[in-house]
Amino acid sequence: MESETQQIALGLRQGDVVVLEALVEQYQSRLVRYLIYLLGSRDGVDDLVQETWLRVLERGGSYDGRLRFEPWLFRVARNIALDAMRKRPMFSLDSYEDDGVRSSPASHEPSPYTLAARTEDAERLAHSLETLEPAYREVLVLRFQEDLSLQEISVVVGAPVSTVASRIYRGLATLRPQFEEKQHED
Amino acid sequence: MKTDDHESFHRMIDEGLAGALSAERERSLRRHLDTCSPCQQYLSASNRVVAGLGGFSFEVDPTLNARVVESLRLRAQQIRAAQPRRRRWVLVSLAAFVLTMGGSFVDRQFGNLIAPVLDVQRAQVQQVLLALWIVPSLCVLLLFPLLPLLSKAGTHRKEGTR
User: Fold this and answer.
1) N or C: which end of chain A has fewer CB atoms below 10 A?
2) Interface pTM, i.e. ipTM
3) Apex A148 CA angle, A143 and A150, nearest 5
4) Domain range for A20
5) Does residue A153 contact residue A167 with C-beta atoms inside 8 Å?
6) Closest partner residue to A121 among B18, B48, B64, by Cβ?
7) B2 at the A interface (CB within 8 A)?
């Protein structure tokens, strides 16, 4: 794996567009998914994706290839998304409710989770995900979809490992009742 | 079994899913799960959450990759085009610095020799050197680094009026 990340680092240092094109092909759908989880919306995600890759081209020299590429990429995307959120105060990663749940979703349109649910369990989770605070959604997707370690997630979100772990536990605690109720019904 | 015990095992299940459970604690959890129905249900519900999270498929605009690649190529060209210009600015600034220092050196070292040869006063030699050599190269040295900023500001102004 190290040689692969070193090759990516070398390509980025040289501003090699061929390397970047391969990375776009490989990581695009994962980047889109991460940003949707972070924002809770599809609006503006394509622009953020484009901006993220341009930033990767411009600042690729700062990736040294010692860690996996994904955490570095998500960190870049997160910074760009945070800048966009600051311009649109209706979204915020900093305003946590005590139970990790927002009182009302940001929009009355069907959530991206409802539209993207492909299984019965996903459909059950869709509404809860919509109302879950972005910081909790973010760590859940990084841990269970991207398979990042706690240390890697800590790098992405810029928070201590203990905070990341605590967010994962609280995120799971918010979503779990969907299935505990089902079991009682069964 | 006490509720506190279940809670501590629930916590261990969460830690296991988060990837923060040691091998020893994992063995202890497995032993407990063999005999504890409430904790098995807790694990099952947790696993369904994780599986449910994998049940979303977000469609990506099929034109997005092409648009991204196009903008990357364009930006890479701009970056490559800007590199020689930056090198030229550095070289001109360096040359202006050497010229300024050279003018001052000539004035100090050879001013007294040049004045009698040309049959003029020392101060006149100094004025000519200042006017024709030192001040122009000093101006280039000081103003040339500002050109990129001025040209960028000009471009922004032009884009703003469009």
Assistant:
1) C
2) 0.85
3) 80
4) 2-185
5) no
6) B48
7) no
